[in-house]
Amino acid sequence: MSAPPPDSDRRFVLTLGCPDQIGIVARISTFIAELGGSIVEAGYHSDPVTGWFFTRQAVRASSIPLGVDEFRSRFRDVAMQLGPETDWALSDTGTLKRIVLLVSKEPHCLHDLLGRAAGGELPATIEAVIGNHADLASVVEAHGVKFHHVPFPRDPDERGPAFGRIRELVDSHEPDAVVLARFMQVLPPDLCAHWKGRALNIHHSFLPSFVGAKPYHQAFARGVKLIGATCHYVTPELDAGPILEQDVIRVDHADEVRDFVRQGRDIEKLVLARGLRWHLEDRVLVHGGKTVVFS
Amino acid sequence: MSAPPPDSDRRFVLTLGCPDQIGIVARISTFIAELGGSIVEAGYHSDPVTGWFFTRQAVRASSIPLGVDEFRSRFRDVAMQLGPETDWALSDTGTLKRIVLLVSKEPHCLHDLLGRAAGGELPATIEAVIGNHADLASVVEAHGVKFHHVPFPRDPDERGPAFGRIRELVDSHEPDAVVLARFMQVLPPDLCAHWKGRALNIHHSFLPSFVGAKPYHQAFARGVKLIGATCHYVTPELDAGPILEQDVIRVDHADEVRDFVRQGRDIEKLVLARGLRWHLEDRVLVHGGKTVVFS
Amino acid sequence: MSAPPPDSDRRFVLTLGCPDQIGIVARISTFIAELGGSIVEAGYHSDPVTGWFFTRQAVRASSIPLGVDEFRSRFRDVAMQLGPETDWALSDTGTLKRIVLLVSKEPHCLHDLLGRAAGGELPATIEAVIGNHADLASVVEAHGVKFHHVPFPRDPDERGPAFGRIRELVDSHEPDAVVLARFMQVLPPDLCAHWKGRALNIHHSFLPSFVGAKPYHQAFARGVKLIGATCHYVTPELDAGPILEQDVIRVDHADEVRDFVRQGRDIEKLVLARGLRWHLEDRVLVHGGKTVVFS
Amino acid sequence: MSAPPPDSDRRFVLTLGCPDQIGIVARISTFIAELGGSIVEAGYHSDPVTGWFFTRQAVRASSIPLGVDEFRSRFRDVAMQLGPETDWALSDTGTLKRIVLLVSKEPHCLHDLLGRAAGGELPATIEAVIGNHADLASVVEAHGVKFHHVPFPRDPDERGPAFGRIRELVDSHEPDAVVLARFMQVLPPDLCAHWKGRALNIHHSFLPSFVGAKPYHQAFARGVKLIGATCHYVTPELDAGPILEQDVIRVDHADEVRDFVRQGRDIEKLVLARGLRWHLEDRVLVHGGKTVVFS
């Protein structure tokens, strides 16, 4: 069962991106030091191509004599000094994040995430699972999670109301992550925009190879020697969102498409789980269609 | 230095592809057993999609009371019984194979292959290296290998004579493998046809991603989390030939294009060396645009 | 849900080891060809160190006009001609194999195998799960599998009756595989002997490094840069049985022991699942403390 | 050819370890910011087990109006404020580092490093190569590098003078790295002490498995499914020094010891090259027998 960390492990996590300039780290770290904050983990990245600076800092919550709201409020001044484009957030690991899963019939990513949640591996609770088929309802409910069945009409042009219902259900949980766990449906542009930066998909190929449908069939036809999976943020352009994580697994001439499918599941599960964990731990900053991952 | 194996390691290597049918293995293995042949290594593959059968068998040469020519001549009957489409070859590892390398300015694949040849790792001799630039001549000659400089005119339309000269030089060595070791030039269709099944290229991406020029720049722009390399047979369609081997290496947001280039070299060297060794050891059978690799 | 394969995928799987000699393949393949048998997959290995020969052959069941018992009975003569030491078996994939799992409190390998069984990935049914703690009972039962709780006394010297009870429960299912899925208890020698070749363990280190207790703590203390997992057959000597599969995952200085534990789970699950599948598909032959795996 | 970087890529690299305390980053980054320094790359690590803090910061040299000596001299005050145990260094990538290689007969790591140096991949020059055999002299000299032959007497007890000569030769180059590139000789304790933190070895196993002689034979006997290589700092206890890097490669039952040796070379070369590059770029901090690698 997912539960907030013990107080000694509770962190305030600051993520920030801004135009690169002299003295950013000095300002941020001086601000934290003056509050007595103990920085447990820190990542920095200066991108010479975009001229952008990125940082993530995890501060031991118990070392700061402030609540997260007050900490956030005081940090606002520092952020403002770094310029109007500065994009930052401050989260508190003492508050568990919330996940909603969208699924269809393929069970492996769902099973994997339910198992990880049950094992306390995810810093989040799975609030609900929504399926356009009901096949996976029972295992979801056995884990004590609510399952919603939103059937889809055959005709793709008539799916508007179903997506509307999904939006309503998802939003009712105010999720930090909307995970398409082999959902197999293309989200309409309005949902992509509405859940921007929160909707994660797992695509069963090493993108940008084999965009779209039946990537394992495409990979088999081309005769590749490795197959892969890609976890990316959902954007209106299909399979083109910022990539959080990818990995591959070796195949050979003896493997048929069904072997690709079977072996690919293992890599899909791992890649989605890693990408999701990094997202939930605020390790991912997006800029210019690409991600910085402080893993 | 490459040298033929000691007599105890000498093998006759049979490779064969034919329409799948009952009793192929029985026929081949009975033929070999009746000659007293000791099969040291055997690979089989039935492809259910194409209905094609593939095998590679390595027989201890000293266990057969025949020379390779006589062995080959006797096997012809067995092959004919398997049908007119049967495609087979029989080689003798007692005769070292011959390699010609085509290079440009990038040294890493060349260095790597020269080092492997010097270390006795390749079952072949490097007969000559041909470069459209002369930069790499001295290291080639330090290894006691002949270097030919065939300069290319700027205008791609005027390169016919240079390619003609290369063809002449290459063919004078009757090579078993023509290796484009970061040659960076597209072979004209007639050379692709002429060296079909013998010309190997290393492409610095995980094909079919990032076909063509500057794949590391393309990979950087897309924000992938792994970069790769692909060893493939050269065909007229660019970067579309049958794939022998691929591998990848992890990159992250801190890596710039030049880091991709540097790290990519390691995977290019490995992938090319593996693919080339398999080719030289007659481990690769091509059918329908794909490879069977009995590695 | 695991179910026998459709008839077109049903195979008779022959595995055989014997002293290497001329003509083994010829005899076996001629025998199969004379019955009209279509060999779908074949692996061969001659070990020059031990002088032993190994093969695995999968024959399309529908191509043979015999049941498995009659096929087995006829093959006996072939096997006898290969010498008295010949060790062979013939199985029928039309009969699902049976697994019993032994668990303790760690859920991840159990969840993973239950998920794979539910997804039809394993050619076997999970007959029962036995735990020395009851923590995992509910998820087992939610999958429709029987859970037996056999509590262990604190004093290791008084565990004889508990192991006796486990032996009884396990044997009542006549399992093809007894899987120690993070069971965390050392089997007594009589059980190791009784289940020889059928009991698989997952050890959370890259053996032979870090034998015994708390391998992740040992790995952390040594400062290794990769951690691993090993699936091996259980033998009386601790963590010294024949290895079926191993894999590793990268760690770095920022990872604490608890991160090793978390990341290690992913590799434990994969390595156990791969080893178990190979075992169930009769891909593993053991000889001289080592395995031949026709994967 | 290795050459110092262009001025725009020149960096001052600060590495520092000290007892963890509030405000370290603030002090260091404020100091750098006040000089106008632009931090190009920064790594931080707090170790909760040892209570030690580590950082590496790369500052664009052209952004600081001081030479490296003056910068170092001013930083001394900051370091002193962090306590008397503080261990720090400041290097200038404008000055190429120096490497001396120790070799025996195995050529692959030597070839690989010479090739990398020739390709400009290493931020260092290879000053000299010393061999206890003369086999590799010619290739070294073809790269324009001095080769010293220091023959070893058969009797290990009489090698003192040879090691004395090696020490003299090595020290004459004031190297930043003394690389045992498959040197195959155990350094005497006084040399281990003298070159502490500068002598790197490549061991051909995944340590701590298979310490000492003939690790591939040991690995073959145990039947492992992956073989590895380890780059570590040399210490008086054999193969027990702090590990910089490790990696593995898959083997199977068909691989004999000589295949392990051949395939192992590829991973030895890569692991040594990575470890050496990190060492030369001041990415490695050693504490308590383990490394922090800001890679």
TrEMBL record, chains A, B, C, D:
Gene3D superfamilies: 3.30.70.260, Formyl transferase, N-terminal domain. Residues 97-273 form the Formyl transferase N-terminal domain. The keyword Hydrolase applies. Belongs to the PurU family. InterPro entries: ACT-like_dom_sf, Formyl-FH4-Hydrolase_C, Formyl_transf_N, Formyl_transf_N_sf, PurU, PurU_ACT. CDD domains: ACT_F4HF-DF, FMT_core_Formyl-FH4-Hydrolase_C. Catalyzes the hydrolysis of 10-formyltetrahydrofolate (formyl-FH4) to formate and tetrahydrofolate (FH4). It is an enzyme of class 3 (hydrolase). It holds the Pfam family Formyl_trans_N. It comes from the Bacteria. Transmembrane segments: none annotated. The keyword Hydrolase applies. It catalyses: (6R)-10-formyltetrahydrofolate + H2O = (6S)-5,6,7,8-tetrahydrofolate + formate + H(+). The active site is at residue 239. SUPFAM superfamilies: ACT-like, Formyltransferase. It comes from Antrihabitans stalactiti. Pathway: Purine metabolism; IMP biosynthesis via de novo pathway; formate from 10-formyl-5,6,7,8-tetrahydrofolate: step 1/1. GO terms for molecular function: formyltetrahydrofolate deformylase activity. Its EC number is 3.5.1.10. This is Formyltetrahydrofolate deformylase. Keywords: Hydrolase, One-carbon metabolism, Purine biosynthesis. GO terms for biological process: 'de novo' IMP biosynthetic process; one-carbon metabolic process.
